[in-house]
Design goal:
With about 150 residues, this protein is mainly α. The protein has a single domain (about 1-150), classed as Arc Repressor Mutant, subunit A (Orthogonal Bundle), CATH 1.10.10.10. About 65% of the residues lie in helices and about 5% in strands. The chain has helices at about 1-5, 10-20, 30-35, 45-55, 70-85, 90-105, 115-125, 125-140, 140-150, and strands spanning about 60, 70. Strands 1-2 form a two-stranded antiparallel ribbon. A hairpin with a 6-residue loop joins β1 (about 60) and β2 (about 70). The chain is globular and about 50 Å long.
Amino acid sequence: MIAWSWELLGEHERTVAERVSVLPGGVTPASATAVCAGTEVPAAGIPDLLAALVDRSLLHLAPDPGRYRMLETLREYGTDRLAASGDLGTVRDLAAGHFAELTARNDPLLRGPGQLAAMRVIGAEYDNTLAALRHRCDTGDATRRARSLSP
């Protein structure tokens, strides 16, 4: 059933669905854009593609505004497809870079008037950041990799 639904997707929809499957903590337009870097998917079209995936029931709206979730069975299917194509490591690297940058950008705000907003951003991305850290540790040089995700 999942394979049938996947095959009904357009090329860009399929690419986005596969690539956002590496994000266990949910998807935002910014994180989807990051993991789709280097593909033919236009960054400006990401919001419309996410909406199309909601319409096709492959993503659903999360309680947080501007955030989407993918069911675990769909995430597993997407990551299996990425692994079969040889792109899983690349996409996880893109995600890890995105969340390292997001953490680095928000870290200084934790000690000032932007603290609450930074805490919300970091908290919302906790599961994605943890997955990125695990990926970096799994790919070797855990100490250097862990430093890239911490202030």
